[in-house]
Design a protein that fits this description.
alpha/beta; Amidase signature (AS) enzymes; AS_sf; Amidase_dom; Amidase domain-containing protein; Amidase
């Protein structure tokens, strides 16, 4: 480690008292005047460099410069009539002046509000003074890589979608702007943290003809974020498709991190065709995101997922002679999670008949380590998550974070009171992070990282026997929002939701929630029809297998329905 000399005549504010204070924090004693003078000089040198660098010009990478648009970048807050379910955060209508392709031509895309859209505020679902010094939501100076790619593909950025407070809740009642309501049943959760994304697509699922004006404005596709299930859970609860891609397939550049090891951005849509198109537009190395590695495809090597889907749909209707049948593994442990409802279990198990009707082989598979997924996800990330999500710590690798976004830290009483009232998970994150670091140090996190490789290998071994694994996405269908004033209710309702999803965030396997049925629940004296999601998992970087399996399931379900229509 080199040291920079102090400029001649430089008067530092750092004194020997600072050195003794720092040593005292670890109960150390500075033994000699020489030691004091040496450490003082080193500390003053570092302080001088930092203070000088504070005034240096910042830099926006050319790949993150906002894309030139046909019209000026303007945004507006939708009215209550335009946004009755609180799914939109801010609205806009951005079209590239010179798109590079037409893969998303004319399609409206909403972006989760932890992803930077140039010229629009970034809220992270929280209060303005949690993310800026002036009490105003900071306006982004960059387009996240996925935003650029949507515009370059001819898509329209229609606005940002509400996300949960700090993008950290599997339910949809924690955002600073209030609860996001499920389109299938007002007053019920949309799931989180990509709650607005799920709701905007859920409106289309409930009302494909867009005849219900009470839903307000909608969108065609959305891009969510997923650290433990935050794309797949809203997809499941809203009856839509949501993919957590392989770790490193879609760049996270320009999105606010929760923890780099589990950060994913993923497409959400109402049908497989849109899923394939949006995935194709978003995937591929961007040269900026250190989450991407040697296995990440260059842009020119991204598979044509839409063509793969076309071929899969043809093959399932007219199988090629001698072709190997799709092998579907029913993951035993995925049906043993705590709190799994009978309706969800039966709906996902019924999918076996659809796969069989499509000519697939259905095989029971066991991965006993699957039960350890939630614990490994927790131990490997929890003690450090506060540093990234709350304190804005940079990674140890070269990375590009959003310069307009300044997280407020450490917490004060006002922050504590607001978060305890809206999303107690964030204060719990701060408390537990400090406690776990002091109680256990880094050793258990390191052990969890090693065990994650074991879990990854266990899934990989199972996926040598089959092409995909299936299981429920969530233990239950959507539930009513907890009472907003009841902190304990918010904590309890979130327990167990990520049991089948979070493990794949740490192993990196792609996983998609596919609508597979409905459950009927009675609430407030009336019956509600609520969607059930089936999770399909494949080998890393084999999203093609997931699309093929989903296409087979859809075809098989239509065949089965023709014989015995579903109620």
């Amino acid at each position: 480690m080199s040291t920079i000399a102090l400029p001649p005549g430089y008067e530092s504010k750092v004194t020997a008292a600072h050195v003794h204070d720092l040593a005292g924090r670890w109960n150390l004693t500075i033994n000699t005047e020489e030691q004091e003078a040496s450490y003082l000089l080193l500390l003053q040198s570092a302080d001088a460099v930092f203070r000088d660098f504070e005034s240096a010009d910042d830099y926006i990478h050319p790949r993150l410069q906002p894309v030139a648009t046909k019209e000026a970048r303007e945004f507006w807050k939708p009215t209550e009539a335009q946004n009755p379910n609180n799914a939109w955060s801010h609205r806009c209508s951005l079209k590239a002046a010179s798109p590079e392709s037409c893969i998303l031509q004319g399609r409206k895309v909403a972006i989760k509000d932890n992803i930077c859209v140039g010229g629009l505020p970034t809220t992270l679902g929280t209060f303005a003074h949690m993310v800026s010094d002036n009490g105003q939501y900071p306006v982004s100076l960059i387009d996240a890589t996925v935003v650029r790619r949507v515009l370059e593909a001819g898509g329209i950025i229609a606005g940002t979608a509400t996300c949960e407070n700090y993008s950290a809740a599997p339910i949809s009642c924690t955002a600073a702007t209030g609860a996001v309501h499920n389109a299938w049943a007002r007053g019920f959760t949309c799931g989180g943290s990509s709650s607005g994304c799920g709701c905007l697509l859920g409106m289309n699922a409930v009302d494909p003809g867009q005849t219900l004006s009470s839903f307000g404005d909608r969108t065609d596709m959305t891009i969510g974020g997923d650290q433990g299930g935050s794309v797949r859970i809203p997809a499941s609860y809203n009856g839509v498709y949501g993919l957590k891609p392989t770790y490193g397939l879609i760049p996270y550049t320009g999105a606010i991190t929760l923890t780099p090891m589990v950060d994913h951005l993923g497409p959400m849509a109402n049908n497989l065709r849109d899923m394939a198109l949006l995935l194709e537009a978003l995937a591929g190395y961007d040269g900026l995101d250190t989450r991407m590695g040697p296995e990440s495809p260059l842009r020119g090597n991204v598979p044509s997922y839409s063509s793969i889907l076309d071929s899969a749909e043809v093959e399932v209707r007219s199988p090629t002679a001698g072709a190997k049948p799709l092998r579907v593994g029913v993951l035993k442990e995925g049906f043993e999670i705590l709190g799994l409802s009978d309706d969800v279990k039966e709906s996902v198990l019924a999918a076996k008949e659809a796969f069989i009707a499509a000519g697939a082989q259905v095989i029971d598979v066991s991965v006993p380590m699957h039960h350890q997924g939630p614990a490994l996800w927790t131990v490997s990330t929890r003690a450090q998550m506060k540093d990234w999500a709350c304190a804005g710590q940079m990674t140890g690798s070269l990375s590009f974070n959003a310069s307009h976004f300044q997280l407020r830290f450490p917490p004060d009483q006002t922050m504590y009171d607001l978060l305890s009232a809206t999303n107690p998970s964030i204060m719990n994150l701060m408390f537990s992070s400090e406690y776990l670091k002091e109680a256990f140090g880094p050793e258990l996190a390191a052990k969890a990282h090693r065990k994650i490789f074991e879990l990854r290998e266990a899934y990989d071994a199972a996926l040598q026997q089959v092409d995909v694994l299936i299981m429920p996405t969530t233990p239950t269908v959507a539930m009513p929002h907890p009472t907003l004033e009841d902190m304990m209710a918010k904590v309890k309702v979130a327990i167990g939701i990520v049991s089948n999803t979070c493990g794949f965030n740490v192993t990196g396997h792609p996983a998609m929630s596919v609508p597979c049925g409905f459950s009927r629940v009675v609430s407030g004296g009336s019956e509600k029809k609520l969607p059930v999601g089936m999770q399909i998992v494949a080998s890393r970087f084999d999203e093609a297998a997931i699309l093929k399996a989903a296409a087979a399931f859809e075809y098989g379900r239509k065949q089965a329905d023709a014989v015995a229509p579903r109620l």
